[in-house]
Amino acid sequence: MSAVITILGVDPALTCTGYGLVRVDGNRYEAIDFGTVAPPAQAPIAERLLRIHEALSDVIRDARPDEVAVEDFIVGHVRAAVAVGEARAVALLAAAQAGLPAVLYKPSEVKQFVTSYGRGGKGQVALMVQALLNLEEPPEPADAADALAVALCHALKRSAIGYQQSVVSSARRL
Questions:
Q1: Catalytic-role residue among 11, 67, 72, 146
Q2: pLDDT tens per residue across span 62-107
Q3: Which of 9, 48, 81, 94 has the fewest beta carbons closer than 10 A?
Q4: Quick check: is 143 catalytic?
């Protein structure tokens, strides 16, 4: 019997960081909470990062997740990559301060695990998140849906790895 775990998924950005908490019980997934952290756009970068860190630290303190999954960034525009990297670092710091393991996932990997297609659009991701979490409607805003997708990606990957490890263990016993 598998243990029930809670995963915090984070979709980092300086303007709007999404977070989503997913409880995993075997092959059942439940959204516990989701939302966004949107510091004032006119605030200095250091203040925005502080607000993101404080908010994620509060979510971690209140929800007590077992693991954290953070979306990594695609190197495209250097300025955007730096901004997302700073927000990603803050999310990783909050996890480390709480003593939680944290894993990074590329956007294409999240889409691959959640939609079975690495180039799915945001709408497709939101619909699959809705279906996998048995929600009445797609989660909003999009940043929160993406964060739930990151948590689901981690849960699905954990499940696949656990399955692979059990198959390898069974084969070794033969």
A1: 11
A2: 999 999 999 997 666 666 677 788 999 999 999 999 999 999 999 8
A3: 81
A4: yes
Whether residue 52 contacts residue 17, with contact meaning beta carbons closer than 8 Å, is answered with yes
137's tokens? 């409607």
> What one-character-per-residue DSSP string does 39-83 give?
--TTS-HHHHHHHHHHHHHHHHHHH--SEEEEE----SSHHHHHH
Q: What is the pLDDT of residue 122?
A: 80
In this structure, what token pair is assigned to residue 7?
Answer: 């995963």
Q: Which of 25, 30, 62, 71 is catalytic?
A: 71
The domains found in the chain, sorted by start residue, are 5-173 (3.30.420.10)
Q: How far apart are CA 150 and CA 19, in angstroms?
A: 9
**Distinct helix (H) and strand (E) counts, the chain:** 5, 5
Where does 74-135 show beta strands of DSSP type E? Answer: 102-105
Residue 71 falls in the annotated catalytic set: yes
- What pTM value is reported for the model? 0.88
Active-site residue, selected from the candidate residues 25, 66, 140, 143: 143
The three-point CA angle 83-126-27 to 5° equals 110
- CA 156 – CA 114 distance, rounded (Å): 8
Q: Which of 42, 43, 30, 38 is CA-nearest to residue 13? A: 38
